[in-house]
Amino acid sequence: MKWFNSIAFRFWLTMNILILTAVLCISSFYLWKESSQLEESLKNEAISMANTLGSAIGLSMLKENYAEISPLAYSLIDQPDVKYVKIRNVEGRVINQKGETLDDPKKVMVTTVPIFYFQKEVGEIEIAVNTIKVEEQKEHVLRTTVITSIIISVISLLLSFWISGKLTLPLKKVVEATKQVTKGNRNVTVPEEQLTEINELVTSFNHMSRTIENFEDQLVNEINIATKSLSDKVSILEALSNIARSVMENNPSKKEVIRVSLKEILQYIPADKISIALWEEDNEEEILIVSLVNQQFLKEEIIPLADTPIHLMIENRQLMIRNHTTEEGIYPQEQVLLKEGIATTMMAPLITKDKVLGSLNLGSVSPNFFDRIHEEEIMMFAHQIAMALDRASLYMSLRRAAYYDHLTGLANSRLLRERIDEVIRHSEEDPNKKFAILFLDLDRFKNINDTLGHEVGDMVLKATSQLLIGNLSYKYLISRLGGDEFIILIPDISYEGEAIDCAKTILSLFNRPLRVKDYELHITGSIGISMYPADGKDADTLIKRADTAMYRVKDQGKNNFAIYAPLTSDPSYEKLALENDLRKALQKGEFIVHYQPKINIVEGTLSGFEALVRWKNSTRGLVSPGTFIPVAEETGLIVPIGAFVMKEAARQMVAWRQAGLPEVPIAVNLSTRQFLQSNLVQSVESILKETGLPPHLLELEITESMTIDLERSIEILAKLKKLGVKISIDDFGTGYSSLHYLQQLPIDRLKIDQSFVQNITVNENHAILVATIINMAKNLQLSVTAEGVETEKQATYLQKQKCEEVQGYFFSRPLSAEEIEGKYRELIEDVKNWKIG
To answer: Whole-angstrom Cα distance, residue 153 to residue 169?
Structure first.
């Protein structure tokens, strides 16, 4: 028995030593392995965070737009284990750092990760994570392992004295279980034995196994929690990045921004209904609801703002969560949601630059679905969406300014030419493809603009634009070149008649008068048509030839259309050449002034002169005023020409006074453009001072059409009268003014138009009309001048009607200053015969 015991003692002593050695080895291996895993896990976590940040800031690092990476770097510092983050560029310079560098490097694990953008290295991220928790876990495992090893050793020594050979089997079970633990199977239990020592060993072993298993489960759970938190934040960052990228890279419309934004939100928050509400400052009573349908398509509806709780956010600008349980006390729009099964809604304001753009709205069929975590995330999305919408609005504003007319909203010349070039490129691929250009110019628009003012002119252009938009096909491009010129591009026509039909449609739009302010205006248009490729193969040629065809319509009476046909003598070219010669004439001093005498047929005296401009061109010769005056009016050259005539006439009158000729007034015509100039009074005053002409010897002639804007006309004429000059109404009877205007206008004279005077001896109605005008002027204490007197009978009739002043070819044609001086005495003698009594 002693021998047996001795053998058993030695056997079990040896087994205990082996078990102790095995426990120590296993514990050491486990301790090393667990420590390595903890360190590797921490390092992998740091690398994962750095890679995530690197993906988010790669594009910004490439563009060296370092200002955008700061908010993203902050997202890592928010992690409890991250101590600092350094971001370096490719040169190794630190361009951003969040957190402070620790003096003791043993407390942190520093990891450096390169930043790549499409396989191009653009910098690196240095991230330091805290190792205190890992060291504490390693110490805990060490203590547990040591204590467990000691307990096992003590139990083994005690068992060696009490146990017999039957312990061999239980010890084998323990050894086998230890092997299982060593292999990684933590869920191992050894059956209990009757012997206390063996049972204690088994119990300790089982406790050790459970402790290790618990520690491992706890560590795995903490790693999973940290990984999920980081993963959630990375998901949000990716969604926000996708929203921002959709605007920065593609310059989309507001609708595209909304579609991308709502789609990204649904990837993160599984709401049952999602939409964005937008409202505009110019319409505060309605909002536009844009909903995402089937993850792709947008549904739009306009509803009254009062039917939603959204208007509350305009004032408080706070996120709102509303739970819907009954239909009592809720808005009509919420009643609709309730019927659709929506139990909870969340609304977040979209605010940018202190301006509320709208709201982000989410709905769920689950009660109390939205919590504080969702609130924070939704506000992040709302802020990003607001910035994206603001950027989209800015881009659309810039595009509108670059490609659309500011007054009418139509396409401008830049967009027109780009679209024509695009159609031409497509046409080159299809030799049978044709398209047409219609050049529309409003007839007599200049008269409206000059007489009624630019405000009314602008309103006419807007009304015309709306007519074209509302009545022409949406496939046509309607553009405004400037002024009253419009171009309609028909991008694809199968036959020439389609362009003609379009022209007829446009002309028919002007059959009814336009009502603008208090005016009923009869507008007509002239249209020129050019066809591709017959009339040109580039935008400039096609537009120019459509313009040429339009001018032919103008020359043939307006209010019609014409298709371009090449002519050897093109009126549009002649007009352009005439305009160029006019501009050169001002520089060369080719304009001269002729003077037509005005005769007082009551007193038989020379009563004044009218200054009339003439153009003596080196190649054209003496050009008729009827030829160049309309072009000068249209181009604005009439203003410097008119100033020249006034100054030259005043200078000539001063020279005649100094030569001893009797003082008589000189009449000068004012063009519409001159009359509407803001500096007209200053210009007249300056000429009077410069030439030394007494103001009462200057008479300014205006037409009735200039006085349509009565209030402004009275103001201008009153200022001129204050200078001391005389005012007369030229071509009286042919304008638009009502006769009662004459009572309010500060004028001195009426000039009866020659169209009435020429027929007074053959047309009784004209004779009565002239007599009536003379009597009316007498009653209004106005002087009267009859123009265009060409026969003695006309002069005699006017004398009988006591019209004191006449002018016309019967007495004298317009003469140069030299001719006036040569024939002055002869003229004086001739008019003496007309003195009454």
So the answer is: 18
Average pLDDT over residues 768-774: 90
Class of domain 578-730+741-831 (CATH, top level): alpha beta
- Rounded to whole angstroms, the Cα distance separating 836 from 597 reads 19
Q: Give the full edge-to-edge strand order of the sheet including 108-117.
A: 94-98, 82-89, 120-130, 108-117
> What is the pLDDT of the chain when averaged over all its residues?
79
Note the pLDDT of residue 328: 55
Give one word for 804, left, alpha or beta, with left for phi > 0 and alpha for psi -120 to 50.
Answer: alpha
C-beta atoms surrounding 263 within 10 Å? 17
d(CA 552, CA 566): 11
Task: Choose the weakest-confidence range: 239-253, 280-294, 594-608.
Answer: 239-253
Q: What is the DSSP string of 244-255?
A: HHHHHHH---HH
Are 671 and 634 spatial neighbours (Cβ–Cβ below 8 Å)?
A: no
Whole-angstrom Cα distance, residue 114 to residue 50?
Answer: 9
What is the predicted pLDDT for the residue at 157?
Answer: 67
Domain boundaries along the sequence of the chain: 1-57+131-248, 251-402, 404-567, 578-730+741-831
Q: Could you say which DSSP state residue 187 is in?
A: -
**C-alpha pair distances (Å), 255 with each of 84, 295, 347, 475:** 40, 14, 19, 22
CA-CA-CA-CA dihedral for 597, 601, 606, 610, to nearest 10: -30
Which residues partner with 113 through β-bridges?
A: 125
Ranking 192-201, 228-237, 510-519 by mean pLDDT, the lowest is: 228-237
CATH of domain 404-567: 3.30.70.270
Is pTM beyond 0.70 here?
no
735-753 residue pLDDT tens: 555 566 777 889 999 999 8
Q: Does residue 581 carry a pLDDT above 70?
A: yes
Distance CA 140, CA 150 (A): 15
The DSSP H or E segment spanning 23 is: helix 2-62
The length of the chain, given as a count of residues: 837
Calculate the alpha carbon distances from 826 to 394, 811, 819, 832 in Å.
76, 11, 11, 10
Which tokens sit at 725? Answer: 């000059």
- In the chain, the amino acid numbered 9 is F
Query: Which residues sit opposite 550 in a β-bridge?
Result: none
**Exposed (0-12), middle (13-18) or buried (19+): which is 567, by Cβ within 10 Å?**
exposed
578-730+741-831 and 251-402 share a CATH fold: no
The CATH T-level fold of domain 251-402 is Beta-Lactamase (3.30.450)
CA distance 558 to 1: 141
Is the separation of the CB atoms in 509 and 524 below 8 Å? Answer: no
Question: Per residue in 416-457, pLDDT tens?
Answer: 998 999 998 888 878 778 899 999 999 888 888 877 888 888
Q: HSE on the CB side for 612, CA within 13 Å? A: 18
Per-residue DSSP letters for 73-104? HHHHHTSTTEEEEEEEETTS-EEEEES---S-
Give the dihedral sign, CA 755/758/764/769: positive
Cα 495 to chain centroid, rounded? 37
Amino acid at 710: L
Distances (CA, A) of 205 to 130, 173, 197, 199: 34, 11, 12, 10
Assign 7 a pLDDT band (cuts: 50, 70, 90). very low
**Other CB atoms within 10 A of residue 752 CB:** 27
pLDDT-wise least confident of 3-12, 331-340, 582-591, 744-753: 3-12
Q: Which of 732, 782, 789 is nearest to 760 (CA)?
A: 789
SS3 (DSSP) at 780: coil
Asked if pLDDT for residue 595 goes beyond 70, the answer is yes
Residue 674, amino acid: Q
List of E strands, 502-587: 514-516, 519-521, 525-532, 561-563
Between 8 and 830, the higher pLDDT residue: 830
E strand or H helix at 544: helix 539-555
92 closest CA partner among 107, 112, 72, 110: 112
